[in-house]
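ARCHIVE CARD
CATEGORY: sequence design from structure
SOURCE FIELD: tokenized fold
FIELD CONTENT:
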């Protein structure tokens, strides 16, 4: 059987080992890729005065779960333009408390003593875990957008007022007449002017980097709309009572006037009732004051009755004062509402009168409907564009203000949950080792199979079946040049076996086989064809080299015979070379070598 050699097995199955290591590593890499997650994290700290007690700037309890609330996540996804479900992002977000080591040790000591610890952290780690189909950049972008929008949300809710809404957007949601559209634009501009005026007073020096405007600049822009654009639209429509459908508009204005009239009547009735209650409370309070002050001037004013009445007076007065003030405030608000409704009704009656007059005198439609609608649309676009400036400025202001109440202690860091490079290296080493081990086992198993199936146990050389396999492998193609074939036969085998027995004959045959094998294994294939006949094939072996091999074999045989004179080896040999003999088919070459062997005189 072949000698155990690890290097021979590795060389024999080197391609198989490499393929096994490659396939195994790819499989591990793909599995690791499927399990890969990118964890983005950042540390934030609440810096307002009440943060260490668990309160926001406005005094309400701090709720860190708002960081991954639906409002914040939805705004973040819209900003990024990612097509992802809000809940899928929320489920991969969480917030961790960061407690200093000193506080942690103090808490442990207090717990050991059985004392209760009370510590409210002001520093938190915000974490987002990306899915296995996302990238490192995706995780970073999502967490960055979440923190940015949370800062705006936190500032708007607890520090600054909500951003002003764009009231002009209502024009896209309803079917309005020309005059109604202009009124909506007018209300939107007026509301924005009030907002900008308050912001200008509160933040006179703030200038947006994104828009380049201050609140004073924005106020002036909206003032131009209020002073010129809106009045120009009113004038265009009212001068000739322009309307997209005057009958519908008249019916709507008539209905609104009737509703306002009814509302004013109801409000006046409520105001009358409130006035009666106020007068009743006023009279009752006057009586109580007269009673108590009268009692206080009596001789026994220092007595227990006086003290009791004073206490009763204080309790009753406090209750009556609260109720009385509420009635007064409600009465004032009701009268303001009445006055506002009356003004609205007068305005609508004026509009109704304008359109009725124009309809009676047939002074209408001097401007095309498309032209008026286009001017309204242009003004709407202008209001919307200016609103975007206000919104961008407000968002930037909120981010600026949030820096005083919410800071990032560390920048965003993204870490992979699976180190693919390390796993790939480990997989390569592991599967290479396993491949080598498998190659050794497989090679050794093949050696055993080859030994039991294709090795002649007597001489230790490939048997006739193995020779047939070798010849069959070469039979389908032409041989190369300088392909040599040797045929050798031990002629003295029968004599030795008869003289010394078969065992000795087999031993001498084995010795002869080892001499041939010592040269055959170096240059080619040597096999025992049975009955003391040996064949050897030497690729790339010219005739001169084959002669050298035969001479070397002859020297070894003569040396053996000198050492064993009683059982000398006598043999015959034949040589055939493909190019010298003009035979390039292995069976013909073997047949020629055997013919030459048979004609050779035994040595």
């Amino acid at each position: 059987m072949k000698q155990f050699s690890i290097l021979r097995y590795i060389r024999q199955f080197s391609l198989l080992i490499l393929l096994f290591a490659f396939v195994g590593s790819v499989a591990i890499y793909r599995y690791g890729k499927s399990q890969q997650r990118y964890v983005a994290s950042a540390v934030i700290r609440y810096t307002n005065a009440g943060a260490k007690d668990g309160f926001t700037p406005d005094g309400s309890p701090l709720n860190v779960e708002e960081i991954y609330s639906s409002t914040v996540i939805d705004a973040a996804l819209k900003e990024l333009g990612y097509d992802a479900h809000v809940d899928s992002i929320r489920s991969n977000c969480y917030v961790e408390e960061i407690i200093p080591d000193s506080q942690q040790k103090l808490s442990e000591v207090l717990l050991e003593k059985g004392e209760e610890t009370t510590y409210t952290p002001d520093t938190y780690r915000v974490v987002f875990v990306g899915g296995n189909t996302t990238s490192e950049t995706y995780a970073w972008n999502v967490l960055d957008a979440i923190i940015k929008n949370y800062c705006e949300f936190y500032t708007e809710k607890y520090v600054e007022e909500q951003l002003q809404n764009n009231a002009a957007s209502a024009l896209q949601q309803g079917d309005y007449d020309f005059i109604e559209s202009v009124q909506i634009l007018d209300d939107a501009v007026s509301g924005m002017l009030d907002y900008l005026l308050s912001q200008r007073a509160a933040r006179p020096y703030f200038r947006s980097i994104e828009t380049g405007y201050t609140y004073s600049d924005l106020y002036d822009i909206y003032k131009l709309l209020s002073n010129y654009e809106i009045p120009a639209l009113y004038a265009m429509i009212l001068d000739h009572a322009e309307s997209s459908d005057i009958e519908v508009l008249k019916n709507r204005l008539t209905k609104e006037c009737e509703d306002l009239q009814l509302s004013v009547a109801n409000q006046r009735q409520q105001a009358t009732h409130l006035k009666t209650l106020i007068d009743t409370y006023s009279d009752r309070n006057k009586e109580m004051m007269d009673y108590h002050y009268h009692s206080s001037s009596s001789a026994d004013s220092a007595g227990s009755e006086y003290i009791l009445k004073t206490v009763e007076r204080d309790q009753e007065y406090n209750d009556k004062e609260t109720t009385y003030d509420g009635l007064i405030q409600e009465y004032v608000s009701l009268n303001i509402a009445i006055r506002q409704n009356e003004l609205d009704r007068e305005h609508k009656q004026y509009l109704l009168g304008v359109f009725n007059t124009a309809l009676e005198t047939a002074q209408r439609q001097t401007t095309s409907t498309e032209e008026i609608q286009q001017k309204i649309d242009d003004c709407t676009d202008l209001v919307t564009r200016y609103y975007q400036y206000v919104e961008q400025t407000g968002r930037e202001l909120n981010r600026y203000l949030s820096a005083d109440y919410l800071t990032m202690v560390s920048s965003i860091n993204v870490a992979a949950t699976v180190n693919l490079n390390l796993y790939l290296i480990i997989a390569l080493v592991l599967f290479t080792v396993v491949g080598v081990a498998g190659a050794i086992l497989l090679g050794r198993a093949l050696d055993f199979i080859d030994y039991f199936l294709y090795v002649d146990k007597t001489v230790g050389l490939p048997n006739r079946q193995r020779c047939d396999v070798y010849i069959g492998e070469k039979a389908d193609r032409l041989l190369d040049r300088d392909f040599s074939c040797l045929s050798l036969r031990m002629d003295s085998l029968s004599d030795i076996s008869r003289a010394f027995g078969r065992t000795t004959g087999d031993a001498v045959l084995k010795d002869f086989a080892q001499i041939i094998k010592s040269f055959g294994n170096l240059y080619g294939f040597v096999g025992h064809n049975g009955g003391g006949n040996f064949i050897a094939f030497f690729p790339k072996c010219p005739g001169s080299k084959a002669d050298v091999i035969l001479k070397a074999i002859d020297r070894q045989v003569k040396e053996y015979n000198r050492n064993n004179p009683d059982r000398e080896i006598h043999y015959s040999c034949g040589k055939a070379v493909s190019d010298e003999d003009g035979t390039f088919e292995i069976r013909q070459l073997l047949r020629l070598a055997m013919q030459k062997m048979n004609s050779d005189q035994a040595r």
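CARD ANNOTATION: The chain is about 65% helix and 10% strand. The longest strand covers residues 406-416.
SHELF: design records, drawer C
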